[in-house]
């Protein structure tokens, strides 16, 4: 049974930083892909970043240079370092996980493995 648990959300000041974490258990794809998405009520979920254990991360233009994804714990944990938080960043942040496909990561939009989300607010 795969479980993804996000943590690290909460209030932050504009211009401040937060570090989100996503811990995967029961997940056999330690060398697979992990992604971060976010969703604002009334809007579609937005892909932020996705990376395999050894690959180069993909970043959406909206957060490029502002957010950084990393993996540790043998690939079972993904972090999202969020800097210079702005008014556009409050959302519920989700992580997703899945296998690579031919060595590459998809967006994981259709992955069955998602966390419950962690809320980020900026004031």
Number of extended strands:
11
- Low-pLDDT residue spans: none
Shape: globular
Radius of gyration: 13 Å
What does this protein look like?
With 123 residues, this protein is mainly beta. The chain contains no helices and eleven strands. Strands 2, 4, 5, 6, 9, 10 and 11 form a seven-stranded mixed sheet that branches. The chain starts with a strand and ends with a strand.
Which short descriptors sum up this protein?
single chain; 123 residues; mainly beta; seven-stranded mixed β-sheet; four-stranded antiparallel β-sheet; 11 strands; 0% helix; globular
Give a topology summary:
Elements: E1 3-7, E2 10-12, E3 18-25, E4 33-39, E5 46-51, E6 58-59, E7 67-72, E8 77-82, E9 91-98, E10 113-114, E11 118-122
Parallel strand pairs: 2-11
Antiparallel strand pairs: 1-3, 3-8, 4-5, 4-9, 5-6, 7-8, 9-10, 9-11
């Amino acid at each position: 049974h795969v479980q993804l648990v996000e943590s690290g959300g909460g209030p932050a000041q504009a211009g401040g930083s937060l570090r989100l974490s996503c811990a995967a258990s029961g997940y056999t794809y330690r060398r697979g892909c992990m992604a971060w998405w976010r969703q604002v009520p009334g809007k579609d979920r937005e892909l932020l970043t996705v990376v395999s254990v050894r690959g180069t991360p993909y970043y959406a233009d909206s957060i490029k240079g502002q957010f950084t994804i990393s993996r540790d714990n043998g690939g079972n944990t993904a972090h999202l370092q969020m800097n210079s938080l702005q008014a556009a960043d409050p959302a519920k942040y989700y992580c997703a996980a899945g296998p690579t496909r031919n060595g590459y990561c998809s967006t994981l939009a259709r992955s069955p493995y998602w966390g419950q989300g962690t809320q980020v607010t900026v004031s």
